[in-house]
Every structure is written in C-alpha cells, then in structure tokens.
Design goal:
The complex is a heterodimer of chains A (about 280) and B (about 280).
Chain A (H helix, E strand, L loop, with lengths): L2 H38 L5 H5 L13 H32 L2 H16 L2 H13 L6 H26 L2 H9 L4 H29 L3 H6 L18 H9 L4 H36 L2
Chain B lengths: L12 H4 L10 E12 L2 E12 L3 E5 L6 H7 L10 E9 L2 E2 L7 H7 E4 L10 H11 L6 H11 L3 H4 L12 H13 L5 E5 L7 H14 L4 E5 L3 H7 L2 E9 L4 E10 H6 L4 H7 L5
Parallel strand pairs in B: 3-8, 3-9, 6-7, 7-8
Antiparallel strand pairs in B: 1-2, 1-4, 4-5, 9-10
Helix pairs in contact in B: 4-5, 4-7, 5-7, 7-8
The chains are: A mainly alpha (about 280), B alpha/beta (about 280).
C-alpha cells in the first residue's frame, strides 16, 4: 500500500472513530433519560408535586417538601455565591496585577475541581458539629461549589467586553470602578446570568454536601433555614435504599424531575448567552 | 541618540495662527526629552516638543514611529499598559504630568481623547454623552449639556429626534462624532485625537476635519494622523516623527516640528522631505 493510501485510510479511520465516540456520548444521555423516565414516569402526577412525603409506611405522598427545600437551598446558595463570584471575576480581570491574578486563578480552578464530598465534610466540621444540620449550612456548601463556576463564567464574559470600551470610559476621567459598574457590567449581565444558571443547575443536583449538612429532615414543607431542609438529591438517595418498590418509583420520578430541571436550565442558559452575544456584537 | 537628530526650531506661533490673540498662545504641553519604552522595546526616544493653546498640532509619520505612543503619554493613557515606562518630563500648564502626587484619572478628565476606531458605549445616543458628566457629578442641566456637546460635534441635527436610540445604530462617521461629543461633554481643556478619521470615508472625514476647525476656538487639539493631506488641511503646526534604526535598536524620534506650510513645502530635514514627497512611508 502506498503512503498516500495509508494516510488516506488513517484519516478515514480516525474520522469514523471520532464520530462513534460522539455518538456514544449522546447515547449515554439518551439511555439515562429513557431508563429514568421509564421507571419514574408512573409516579408523576399532580399529587407528586403538591403533596409532601408520606409518613413512614403510608402509601402515596409526593416530593413537595423536597422541591420547596431544594429551591430554598439553591436560591440561598446563589445569593451567597453570586456576589462573591462576580466580584472575584471583576478583581481578576479589571484590577489584579498579573503576579496576583495568576495564583488566584489557580486557586479558583482547584476549588472548581474539589470533590464535593470534601466540601461537604469541611462545611460539616465548620457549621454542623456543635450545632445541628441546617439549611444555611447546606446552602453554604452548595455556594462553595457554585463560587468558582460563577467566577469563571463571569471572567469569560468580562474578557469579551472590548478593551476599547474600557479605554473610552477611562479617557473620560472616570474611575475604574465606575467604568466597571457603568460600562462593563451592563454589557456582560447576560453572560453572568448564564453562568449563574448553569452553576445553579449543577448545585441543585449535588448530594454529597447535603448528606452532611441537610439530610435529617421532616416530611413536611419546611422553610426555616436554621433547620435541615428537605431536598431532592437526599430524598432520591434515601428512597433508593428503602425496600418499598413504590418509594423506588418515587426516587426515579424525583430523578426525572431533577434531570428535567437541569435540561431546562441549560437550554435557558444557552438562549441567554446567545442573546447577550448578539447584543455585544453590534 | 545619533548626531543627525535636529531639534525643532523656535516657532513663532503668532505668525502662523493669525486668528488667535496673544494671551491664547501660551504653551500647554512642554515636553522634554521624552522616552517611552514597553519592556525592552523603545517606542520613542528623546522627544522635545511644545504644544500651544488653541492651535491644532498634527503628529505625522510612518507606521510604528511612535505617534500613538506619544499622544497617549499626554493624558497618561499609557499608564494602563503594564509594561510601559516613561522617562523625561511632560509639563502640562507648567506642572509635571508624571509627578508623584498627580492623579492620572484627573489628568484624563482634563485632557480628553478620541480613538482611532469609534468606540461608543452600547447605550443610547443620549446616555453616551450624558454618562461622563453624570458620573463626574456634572448633573446640572444635563439635557442642555448633552445638546451643547452634540451641537459642538456637529451631530445634533442628525440625532435630535432619536436620542434614545442605541448609539450603535449610527453610521461610522456619526459614531466618531458622537465620541467627540462624549469627550467634550465633560469639558476637557485639551482634546487628543488618535487617527480619528482613519476608518472613515472621505465625506465623514471631511465632516470631522470641519469640526476640528470649529473646536480649535475652544480647545487645544493634538491629532495623530498618517494621512498627510489631512495634516496639511487641518493643522497649524505639524510634527514629523520617524523611525530611527541603528544596529542595536530602533525607536521613534521627532525629526522636525514647524508650521504645517513649512513642513509640507520647505522642510529643513531631508527625512521630512522624503516623507512628505512620498518617497517613503
């Protein structure tokens, strides 16, 4: 076989391999969605969303308390992580000298890669030992997970803002902070929201940190953040360990709800990002 | 510095700018031995130059000779470049622009700048002009201030009915005039223009040039241009920068600074003559 043919064949083989790999990735998601839906769809109905968990041993019940709790946890976590994440990104892109920006960047990347169980143990040691499990401890753990994600996403959109806009503002004799607030942030709000929604979707499904901080909860709707808040990930985890097949089905259904939320959030984030890109691109 | 470098002759400004009264001809910028380098690269070296009030001074020269570097020193925009090092002295109305107590933000407020590429904020036309004054605490009679700035920039009649429209909907020439309006809305004392018309068509360029003649009455203008005809049309004084290359390094130097008519018709330096007659650059 000539060299020419060998190269051509090699190219063809690699192309096929890459295509197959991409198809496998898509197939995994499809298989997961189908198997979860098949097992859980039966439990989904009006009651499932509106009723709290049934008392132990009772039939029926829903996940209303866990839905409310997860919403509260995630909102609280966002409230903690968003300002810190955005300010960190602003510091890194607008203020930090290079010799500080580089190490801080590394720290944030490490934080993003930290196993969530480690974050869970850390918050457990910090806020739960000596106190009790609580919604704010859970939210804090989730916020630690969200922080680097929001900071990273914000940084990326801040870097998209053309340098000429910064120059225009600074040349007017406007201070850097006012430039950030008046010119740079308004141009990047869309991107920051996108990053936040993605981080929020990620945090909504995190289980490990909540096992330590917000896992022993009542089966009623609970809004007091000083107590452990019911939540979907932990509910899925506990139900799947029960012997009752009805609870198994509910666990699958809850997983389906969680997955649907992540899917919708990702699509919404994508749409938001596309909109903000269009706005910046003139 | 090599021997061939000529110091600009003493210039009789009064003779060249007939319409300005003696009191207005004072020196605004007095630049001594200015050398600017980025890291290990020297951009300009040993520049001595005086810029006069209510006069248009043009900076011309081939690409890479440090024209923009020079003009960016005048309002300390080069401070934003981490590697930039500035040596020598720039006196602005008698005081050292780079003295330790001087706040670069305040310098930029008093010495405005218009850039090569029009860079309006992605806000409404009105907000583009009003934002600077608002942030800097000049909130009184903001509407009047915006109108005055837009009129000075010869843009008012074109935009008065759509002030709330996004500035990015304007044409390139209009955007650049909007940037000029934005710069003068905060009432600077000097306006620096870094190739303001290089991205514009001839009609828009002509509008900007007419505008400069208008603005000269109130402001001191310094314009960087690589368009020699433009310098000849608008400037009272012209400084010619060139790139001096010797074995070890290359840097921009000021070759000749004189009345525009002299630079273009009877330059004293051979290098100026070669450039303005189109033999290089």
């Amino acid at each position: 076989m000539s060299r020419y043919h060998r190269r051509r064949l090699m190219n063809r083989a690699m192309e096929v391999l890459a295509t197959v790999a991409a198809l496998v990735a898509v197939a995994v998601l499809v298989v997961v969605v189908i198997s979860v839906a098949r097992r859980g769809a039966g439990a989904i109905g009006w009651d499932f969303f509106t009723k709290p968990q049934a008392l132990f041993g009772q039939p029926g019940g829903g996940i209303a308390n866990a839905l409310v709790g997860t919403a509260l946890l995630v909102l609280l976590a966002t409230a903690m992580a968003l300002p810190v994440g955005v300010l960190t990104a602003i510091y890194l892109t607008e203020f930090a000298p290079r010799r500080l920006a580089v190490p801080i960047q590394v720290v944030i990347d490490v934080l993003a890669g930290l196993p969530t169980i480690v974050i869970g143990i850390f918050v457990y040691a910090l806020l739960v030992i000596g106190h009790t499990q609580s919604g704010y401890a859970g939210a804090f753990a989730l916020a630690v997970i969200m922080l680097p994600l929001i900071a990273r996403a914000t940084q990326e959109v801040l870097l998209l803002v053309p340098g000429t806009l910064r120059e225009a503002s600074l040349a007017l004799g406007v201070r850097r902070w006012r430039t950030v607030v008046g010119v740079i942030l308004p141009s990047s709000v869309g991107g920051i929201l996108t990053g936040t929604v993605l981080a929020l979707a990620r945090a909504a499904g995190e289980t490990a940190p909540l096992l330590f901080t917000s896992s022993i909860f009542a089966n009623t709707v609970q809004t007091d953040v000083t107590k452990a808040l019911p939540n979907i990930p932990v509910l899925i985890f506990t139900y799947s360990e029960q012997p009752d097949p009805a609870l198994h089905q509910q666990a699958w259904a809850a997983a389906l709800v969680l997955m649907a939320f992540v899917l919708v959030a990702s699509l919404a984030a994508k749409a938001l990002l596309a909109r903000s890109r269009r706005k910046l691109a003139r | 510095m090599t021997e061939s470098f000529t110091i600009a002759p003493v210039i009789d400004v009064a003779q060249m700018t007939q319409d300005s009264r003696p009191s207005e001809r004072e020196v605004v910028f007095d630049i001594h031995d200015l050398t600017v380098s980025y890291g290990r690269v020297t951009a300009i070296s040993g520049v001595d130059l005086q810029i006069h009030r209510n006069v248009i001074t043009a900076i011309i020269g081939p690409s890479g000779c440090g024209k923009s570097t020079f003009i960016r020193c005048l309002n300390r925009m080069n401070d934003l470049v981490p590697e930039a090092r500035i040596e020598g002295q720039i006196l602005y109305q008698g005081s050292d622009l780079y003295a330790s107590g001087v706040d670069p933000v305040e310098v930029r407020r008093r010495i405005g700048m218009v850039f090569q590429k029009a860079n309006p904020f992605p806000k409404s036309i009105y907000d583009n002009v009003a934002w600077g004054p608002r942030v800097l605490g000049m909130r009184k009679e903001l509407d009047e201030r915006v109108e005055k700035a837009l009129r000075s920039a010869a843009l008012w009649d074109e935009v008065k009915d759509r002030l709330k429209k996004n500035a990015l909907s304007l044409s390139g020439g209009q955007q650049q005039r909007l940037c000029i309006a934005r710069a003068i809305a905060v009432e600077p004392e000097v306006l620096l223009l870094d190739e303001p018309a290089s991205a514009l068509d001839p009609i828009a360029t002509s509008a900007i040039e007419d505008l400069m003649h208008q603005l000269k009455r109130e402001y001191t203008l310094v314009i960087v241009t690589h368009n020699m005809q433009q310098a000849a049309r608008v400037a009272d004084l012209t400084a010619f920068f060139s790139l001096e290359v010797d074995e070890t390094r290359r840097s921009g130097v000021l070759v000749e600074y004189d009345a525009t008519s002299k630079i273009f018709t009877n330059p004293s330096d051979k290098r100026t003559e070669d450039y303005v007659t189109g033999r290089f650059g």
